[in-house]
């Protein structure tokens, strides 16, 4: 098809593009996004670079125990004689991966529950609302600890990530439900239903695309909160003890009393990595709030005349 | 409600237009019979419609005029089976239709009756290109259509609503189109299922004045060429007169007057219609196109409004009595009967039964 579209025809859709533009124009959000981008880059390419350029491994014994930072070992070595920098970089990958899995799980669940409940309303909505409320008041962390402890060794950190996702979707479901309710009676949705479109199609093709900007921004935050949660669990020794991650690095440093031996290079880097990530998420969150409040913007022409009450 | 159209004066707008002769057996395509819609609310039931009847015929336009809140949209939604009537029925080709609960029934009904909404900015999903918007109704009603035929049909639809060159519009998204173009896409979408009836809820009120006449003429052409039955909802009795064969005037959920476009606008019988007509400007196409402004500025049904009636506890008797210049004690006590003032021209007002003089005035 080589139809000549109007010169302004963009490849992307109007609304998410506008949202994205506003997000990158907001200074706080931009700073946060930049930091997150660096993390993503490190997670994807870091381990390869560390292996091939520095020749370091996150598990191999280097011959030096508790060596301070040097040209060879940028962040020194730990008590097992393993290069801390290599561990940090590999830990970034596993921490982000686990966060991504947890966040995807909770996002998919929250979108499903919010969309279906908000779209159908009635009894189904009430039932889903009740389930949502139960998950909201469930003491999330203790539950995760119990479940993750039980799953330990039976799926490792991925199982823990899924548990975190399953316990953490409720807030998101609420906000997605509210937005679905506001979209449900929009004219284009009414039109699609009038045409005789299947409900799944109305939800998937008419409503869901309009939720995407918000889904994508909350997904980012969900990734970060999940990472923090997983790191916390790993620090407590829950999860896969053999994975190199920020949490497990911190736990080892704590167990081996790195603080007393003055090996700051062992525990400061993973701690800083977690802190900075949390700060980045906070910045993006501020940005999203500034853009979307007081109400989430969905494209809407100004109504010229007073309509129904 | 059966005015002999062969006697209608032929003015420039109906010149050359084959007015379908209405015979006794000319059954309405779609009709509302004594439709009542009450919306339960915390404060009580909102009487949006009370005992409203109206019929749409092949190749003819029926305008519904009334101020904001008079129940026009509710009527259109009821006819489209979006709104379940509290009482009364909707009849398709003379047979009552049940609310289409099932998707298949819904689809079958949609193949006959299409609702086009007022606001083309919200009736088209901003995220879909025109191609998608048009392909959905085509595929829903003829699922096995091959790709090339689909493409051809979409291009034909765009040409029918005068969006040319059609190819240019296929991949545009709604935000790249003007209001008038969007409304044409919405109309093309409605035409895609080859309906018999188009229900237009204030189709042109959101459009630029310069585009209104264009869209109205497009609708008139489609109606004449395809024999579509049309419901044309408007605030503005002037466009109704220009465009419609019959006019029904709604006030506070009740029909106060109905008749041919000529009769209702030339010799309005109900005091409310008179006020509407008096405050309405010259309805010539030129002034429509060059009109003073949007729906808000143009004298419209609202312009007469002092205070809109309370629909939860509507005024007793004649609902117009608190605002009526001719109100008499009886008006607050009993609801006036429907009086046939002329062939097919009916109105509900006590003055019509009481006042010799008023009747003569209305016939003048
Ligand atoms: N879902 C609803 N629930 C409660 N009241 C409603 C509902 N829909 C409409 N109404 C009320 O019914 C009355 C008629 O509404 P309707 O939309 O039919 O008026 P309208 O003539 O189309 O007005 P407008 O010209 O402003 O579009 C109004 O008072 C409106 O507030
Ligand atoms: S019935 Fe009475 S109040 Fe109603 S329009 Fe006629 S004269 Fe006016
Ligand atoms: Mg309306």
Account of the protein in words:
The complex is a heterodimer of chains A (309) and B (364). Chain A has helices spanning 14-25, 27-54, 84-120, 122-137, 140-151, 156-167, 170-184, 187-195, 199-235, 246-255, 264-292. Chain A is mainly α. Chain A has one domain (18-58, 83-296): MetI-like (MetI-like fold, Orthogonal Bundle), CATH 1.10.3720. The model of chain A is unreliable at 1-16 and 294-309 (pLDDT under 50). Chain B is α/β, with parallel strands linked by helices. Among the domains of chain B are: 124-194, no CATH class; 268-363, no CATH class. In chain B, the strands form two sheets. Chain B has an eight-stranded mixed β-sheet with strand order 6-7-8-3-9-10-12-11, with helices on both faces. Chain B has a four-stranded antiparallel β-sheet with strand order 2-1-4-5, with helices on one face. In chain B, a hairpin with a 2-residue loop joins β1 (30-41) and β2. In chain B, α3 crosses α4 and α3 (130-141) packs parallel to α6 (179-191). Chain B is elongated. Chain B starts with 29 loop residues before the first strand and ends with a helix. Chain A binds chain B through residues 1, 3-6, 8-10, 13-15, 186-188, 190-199, 205-206, 209-210, 299-301, 303-309, and chain B through 68-69, 73, 80, 82, 103-104, 106-108, 110, 114-115, 117, 119, 121-128, 136-137, 140, 167-168, 170-173, 175-176, 189, 193, 205-206, 235, 294-296. Bound molecules: adenosine-5'-triphosphate (ATP), iron/sulfur cluster (SF4) and magnesium ion.
Question: Would you spell out the secondary-structure blueprint of this structure?
Answer:
The complex is a heterodimer of chains A (309) and B (364).
Chain A: H1 14-25, H2 27-54, H3 84-120, H4 122-137, H5 140-151, H6 156-167, H7 170-184, H8 187-195, H9 199-235, H10 246-255, H11 264-292
Helix pairs in contact in A: 2-3, 2-11, 3-4, 3-6, 3-7, 3-9, 3-11, 4-7, 5-6, 7-9, 8-9, 9-10, 9-11, 10-11
Chain B: E1 30-41, E2 44-56, E3 61-65, H1 72-79, E4 87-92, E5 95-97, H2 103-110, E6 113-116, H3 130-141, H4 147-160, H5 166-170, H6 179-191, E7 197-201, H7 209-226, E8 229-234, H8 237-243, E9 246-251, E10 254-260, H9 261-266, H10 271-278, H11 285-290, H12 329-333, E11 338-342, E12 345-348, H13 350-354, H14 356-363
Parallel strand pairs in B: 3-8, 3-9, 6-7, 7-8
Antiparallel strand pairs in B: 1-2, 1-4, 4-5, 9-10, 10-12, 11-12
Helix pairs in contact in B: 3-4, 3-6
The complex binds adenosine-5'-triphosphate, iron/sulfur cluster and magnesium ion.
């Amino acid at each position: 098809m080589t139809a000549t579209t109007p010169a302004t025809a963009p490849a992307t859709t109007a609304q998410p593009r506008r949202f994205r533009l506003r997000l990158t124009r907001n200074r706080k959000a931009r700073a946060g996004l930049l930091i997150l981008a660096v993390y993503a880059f490190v997670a994807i390419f870091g381990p390869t670079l560390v292996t091939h350029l520095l020749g370091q491994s996150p598990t191999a014994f280097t011959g030096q125990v508790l060596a301070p930072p040097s040209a060879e070992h940028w962040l020194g070595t730990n008590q097992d004689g393993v290069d801390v920098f290599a561990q940090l970089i590999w830990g970034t990958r596993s921490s982000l991966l686990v966060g991504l899995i947890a966040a995807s799980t909770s996002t998919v669940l929250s979108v499903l529950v919010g969309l279906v409940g908000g779209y159908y309303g009635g009894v189904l909505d009430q039932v889903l609302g009740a389930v949502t409320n139960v998950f909201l008041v469930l003491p999330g962390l203790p539950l995760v600890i119990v479940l993750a402890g039980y799953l330990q060794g039976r799926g490792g950190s991925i199982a823990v990530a899924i548990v975190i996702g399953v316990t953490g979707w409720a807030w998101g479901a609420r906000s997605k439900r509210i937005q679905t309710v506001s979209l449900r009676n929009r004219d284009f949705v009414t039109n699609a239903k009038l045409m005789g479109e299947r409900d799944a199609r109305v939800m998937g093709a008419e409503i869901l695309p309009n939720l995407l900007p918000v889904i994508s921004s909350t997904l980012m935050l969900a990734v970060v909160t999940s990472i923090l949660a997983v790191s916390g669990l790993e620090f407590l020794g829950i999860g896969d003890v053999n994975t190199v991650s920020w949490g497990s690095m911190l736990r080892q440093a704590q167990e081996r009393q790195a603080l007393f031996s003055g090996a700051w290079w062992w525990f400061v880097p993973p701690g800083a990595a977690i802190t900075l990530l949390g700060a980045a998420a906070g910045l993006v969150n501020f940005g999203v709030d500034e853009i979307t409040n007081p109400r989430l913007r969905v494209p809407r022409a100004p109504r010229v005349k007073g309509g129904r009450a | 409600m059966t005015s002999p159209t062969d006697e209608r004066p032929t003015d420039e707008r109906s010149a050359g237009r084959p007015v379908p002769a209405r015979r006794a057996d000319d059954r309405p395509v779609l009709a509302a019979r004594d439709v009542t819609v009450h919306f339960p609310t915390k404060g009580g039931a909102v009487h949006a419609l009370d005992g409203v009847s109206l019929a749409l015929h092949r190749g003819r336009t029926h305008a519904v005029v009334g101020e904001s809140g008079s129940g026009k949209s509710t009527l259109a939604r009821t006819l489209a089976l979006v709104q379940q009537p509290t009482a009364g029925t909707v009849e398709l080709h003379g047979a009552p239709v049940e609310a289409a609960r099932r998707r298949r029934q819904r689809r079958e009904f949609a193949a006959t009756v299409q609702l086009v909404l007022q606001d083309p900015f919200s009736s088209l999903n901003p995220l879909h290109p025109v191609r998608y918007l048009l392909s959905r109704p085509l595929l829903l009603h003829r699922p096995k259509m091959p790709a090339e035929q689909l493409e051809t049909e979409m291009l034909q639809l765009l040409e029918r609503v005068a969006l040319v060159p059609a190819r240019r519009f296929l991949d545009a998204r709604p935000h790249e189109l003007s209001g008038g173009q969007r409304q044409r896409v919405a109309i093309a979408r409605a035409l895609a299922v080859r309906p018999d009836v188009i229900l237009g809820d204030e189709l042109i009120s959101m459009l630029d004045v310069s585009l209104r006449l264009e869209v109205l003429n497009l609708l008139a052409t489609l109606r004449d060429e395809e024999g579509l039955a049309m419901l044309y909802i408007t605030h503005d009795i002037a466009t109704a007169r220009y465009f419609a064969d019959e006019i029904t005037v709604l006030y506070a959920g009740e029909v106060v007057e109905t008749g041919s476009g000529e009769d209702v606008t030339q010799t309005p019988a109900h005091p409310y219609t008179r006020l509407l007509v008096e405050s309405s400007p010259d309805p010539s196409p030129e002034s429509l196109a060059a009109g003073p402004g949007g729906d808000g500025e143009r004298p419209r049904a609202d312009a007469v409004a002092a205070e809109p009636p309370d629909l939860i506890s509507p005024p007793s008797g004649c609902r117009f009595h608190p605002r009526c210049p001719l109100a008499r004690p009886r008006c607050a006590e009993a609801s006036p009967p429907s009086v046939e003032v002329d062939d097919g021209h009916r109105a509900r007002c006590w003055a019509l039964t009481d006042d010799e003089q008023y009747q003569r005035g209305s016939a003048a």
